[in-house]
Design goal:
alpha/beta, Rossmann fold, eight-stranded mixed sheet, about 35% helix
Length: about 210
């Protein structure tokens, strides 16, 4: 049974036993709010509160407790809380002269070699998955999460996302048949994500 709640992820994770989730794919705040604000886009107001504080050790301890394996976006910002690994994932945004970063890195607990996924991404409207444009400042494409699930999740795995944001991860899970639990503490983002999920489900029914 899929679950998506508008609560603090620490409260949510506390409900689960050790190793309850097979794979956590998470995208916590990087603590780079001031740098993101300098980009100067439509989300400037939200950036002031969204990404100015990164999670502490307590968050990562709880994440490791409830999940067997982890893929953590922005892992390069959290190295003081993570153990050394060569198993990184690099997302190449292939975004040319964009003011933002050329890509993002994910730390993983998996036994893999460094892998790269390349997809053009500037965060603007892109095909059906973003027909209403970007709804979250650090929104990632559904295709990225589908690639992660294809390569690193097994059939029947239960997926955890502690910072759902735009719901790209949940859409990928539903599209590929994975059950999930997700948390989003911000009510505005939660409502927008729920709306996006409903739009995805409606389009899926039309396609059938």
């Amino acid at each position: 049974m899929n679950r998506f709640d508008n609560i603090d992820c620490m409260q949510g994770m506390a409900e689960y036993e050790d190793n309850h989730f097979d794979l956590a794919i998470v995208d916590p705040p990087y603590g780079a709010g001031d740098k993101l604000m300098a980009i100067g886009n439509a989300y400037e107001k939200k950036y002031k509160t969204f990404d100015n504080k990164k999670p502490d050790k307590i968050y990562f301890d709880e994440l490791f407790r409830v999940s067997k394996n982890q893929i953590i976006w922005g892992g390069n910002y959290f190295t003081s809380f993570l153990y050394e690994t060569n198993a990184w994932i690099f997302w190449d945004k292939n975004n040319g002269e964009s003011k933002g970063s050329d890509g993002e890195m994910a730390w993983t607990s998996l036994d893999i070699l460094l892998k790269k996924f390349k997809i053009h991404w500037t965060g603007s409207a892109s095909l059906w998955e973003d027909t209403n444009g970007k709804i979250h400042p650090t929104q990632k494409p559904v295709a990225l999460y589908k690639w992660l699930l294809t390569k690193y999740a097994k059939e029947g795995d239960l997926i955890l996302d502690t910072h759902v944001g735009s719901a790209s991860s949940l859409i990928a899970c539903e599209d590929m048949g994975f059950e999930y639990v997700g948390f989003e503490i911000d009510k505005d983002y939660y409502d927008s994500a729920q709306k996006r999920l409903k739009q995805f489900r409606s389009q899926l029914k039309l396609a059938i």
